Amino acid sequence: MKQFTVTNLTEDLAAQCAALELLAFPHADPADLLDEEDIRVYAQTFPEGFFVVMDGDRVVGQGAGIFLDFDFDHPQHTIAEITGPHQCGNHDPDGEWYYGTDMVVHPDYRRQGIGGRLYGVRKDLVVRHNKAGIIAGGHIPGFAKHRTEMSAPEYIDRVATGELYDPTLSFQIENGFRVAGALENYLHDDATDSYSALIVWDNPEYNKSKAAR
Ligand SMILES: CC(C)(COP(=O)(O)OP(=O)(O)OC[C@H]1O[C@@H](n2cnc3c(N)ncnc32)[C@H](O)[C@@H]1OP(=O)(O)O)[C@@H](O)C(=O)NCCC(=O)NCCS
């Protein structure tokens, strides 16, 4: 991991970050993905929440998120609804949670620990700001192989219990996340029947009495 550096988003990286996004979600509707303009707006809105991994001048990974409040009594949401304009418009500095809007590692750079490192810097941010934890809609790329045998919610349950392996969701569980349900119509993607898993990492150092509200 020595050759990689982690930095916060700047506008000059937007074109590379947008290209990486398209590469990582080949079956998703591009309208649901971050484009170059979205990323430029992100850089002006909350660059501290958007981490970029560089191999020299090349962007090889990114993990982004915003602060917001979350209602666990009404957990269903789409990526567009929860994040707002440019997938960062709903950023609220006083929000209780860090909501992960994006997590991608270049296919040629996977399984070398970059994703784990991105979770590490996100968790540090959450601890530093005394937030309750991280919430995200976890992608389930491995579901495509099981689509004829079971529904997406059943697949998510079986990955959560460890019975099935998913290249993304299992990695997230390995990184300390718990599965809190299935999100319908989260992001339009034929390979996942548009489902994602609702995943949560609880900050063990969170002090609610000292939180912004
Ligand atoms: C999910 C994703 C971000 C993971 O990135 P990554 O850099 O490969 O993550 P890591 O290398 O830290 O970990 C991935 C796996 O490689 C293993 N690994 C890490 N370093 C390794 C090494 N040096 N040698 C062998 N295996 C290694 C990890 O243990 C982990 O295994 P697991 O799946 O059994 O938990 C990446 O696969 C990706 O971009 N997927 C497509 C987009 C996506 O689904 N994003 C998530 C949206 S919610």
List keywords for this structure.
Aminopeptidase, 213 residues, seven-stranded mixed sheet, alpha+beta, binds coenzyme A, 6 helices, 7 strands, 23% strand
What would your notes on this structure say?
The structure is a single chain. The chain has helices spanning 14-24, 36-45, 79-83, 114-128, 152-160, 169-174; strands at residues 4-8, 51-55, 58-68, 97-105, 133-138, 178-183, 196-202. The protein is α+β, with helices and mostly antiparallel strands and 213 residues long. The chain has a domain at 64-210: Aminopeptidase (3-Layer(aba) Sandwich), CATH 3.40.630. It has a 7-stranded mixed sheet. The chain is globular, with a radius of gyration of 16 Å. The mean pLDDT is 95. Residues 24, 103-105, 110-116, 136, 138-139, 141, 167-168, 170-171, 174 line the site of coenzyme A.
Mean pLDDT: 95
Strand percent estimate: 15-25%
Task: Supply the helix-strand structural class.
Answer: alpha+beta
Helix-strand string:
EHHEEHEHEHHEE
The tally of strands reads 7
Shape: globular
Q: Spans with pLDDT under 50 lasting ≥5 residues?
A: none
Largest sheet: 7 strands, mixed
Ligand catalogue: coenzyme A
**CATH architectural name of the domain at 64-210:** 3-Layer(aba) Sandwich
Amount of helix = 25-40%
The H-level CATH homologous superfamily of the domain at 64-210, spelled out, is: Gcn5-related N-acetyltransferase (GNAT)
